[in-house]
Structures are given as C-alpha cells and as structure tokens.
C-alpha cells in the first residue's frame, strides 16, 4: 500500500468522523451530510486505488481539492483553527501526497 492510498484513506476517515462530530455537537445536518458524502467518496477512492485504478487517485485529488477550498474559506470566515484550520492543513498535506503520487505514476 503506497502513501497516496494511506493519505486518502486517513483523510476520508477523518472527514467522515468530523461530519458526525459536527452533527452531534452542533446539530448540523450539513456537517453530517457533507462529511459523510465526501468521507465515503475518499474511502471509496482509496479502495479503487488499492485495485490499481488510476482514476481513484484522480477522484481523491478532486474531492480533497474541493474540501480544501471549502475549509480554507471557512477558516478565513471564522478564524478558528478547529475544525476548519486543522482540515485545511490536513487537506493540503493530503493533496500534496496525492499530486506527488499522480506525477510519479504518470512518468
């Protein structure tokens, strides 16, 4: 299992758990819905990557990039590190690993 798969799986699990925590603590249906959808998409992308399909890595990059933009805007708006800042930092790290994996797999 390579680092791209591990990063995608870890970020997907964190996103899924974060959506559940957002629902439990703040009663946010949006957190539950968006966290569940994006987390499950990332977990699915990791399993597709395990099967050797390159499009799983592309799916992971797109979902991570969208989440990165959403959390960066939320961080700019709220100026609170938790959860937006943490998810922005983790998203940047995950996206860097995924892009590196994409560039090395294409050469």
Lay out the secondary structure.
Elements: H1 3-26, H2 29-50, H3 54-78, H4 81-106
Helix pairs in contact: 1-2, 1-4, 2-3, 3-4
How would you characterize this protein structure?
This protein is mainly α and 107 residues long. The protein has one domain. Helix content is 91%, strand content 0%. The chain has four helices and no strands. Helix 1 packs antiparallel against helix 2 and helix 1 runs antiparallel to helix 4. The longest helix is centred in the C-terminal third of the chain and has 26 residues. The radius of gyration is 14 Å and the shape is globular.
- The beta-strand count equals 0
Q: What low-confidence regions span 5 or more consecutive residues with pLDDT below 50?
A: none
* Mass-distribution shape: globular
Computed CA radius of gyration, to the nearest angstrom:
14 Å
Helix fraction bin:
over 70%
- Termini distance? 19 Å
> Order of helices and strands, N to C?
HHHH
How many helix segments? 4
How many discrete structural domains? 1
Mean pLDDT: 95
Which sheet architecture does the biggest sheet show? none
At a glance:
Helices cover 91% and strands 0% of the residues. By secondary structure, it is an all-alpha fold.
Task: Considering the chains and any ligands shown, give keywords for the structure.
4 helices
């Amino acid at each position: 299992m390579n680092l791209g798969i591990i990063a995608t799986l870890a970020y997907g699990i964190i996103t899924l758990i974060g959506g559940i925590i957002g629902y439990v603590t703040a009663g946010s249906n949006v957190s539950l819905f968006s966290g569940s959808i994006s987390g499950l998409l990332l977990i699915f992308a990791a399993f597709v990557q395990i099967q050797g399909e390159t499009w799983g890595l592309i799916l992971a990059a797109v979902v991570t990039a969208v989440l990165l933009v959403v959390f960066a805007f939320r961080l700019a708006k709220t100026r609170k590190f938790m959860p937006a800042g943490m998810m922005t930092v983790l998203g940047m790290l995950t996206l860097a690993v995924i892009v590196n994996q994409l560039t090395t797999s294409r050469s």
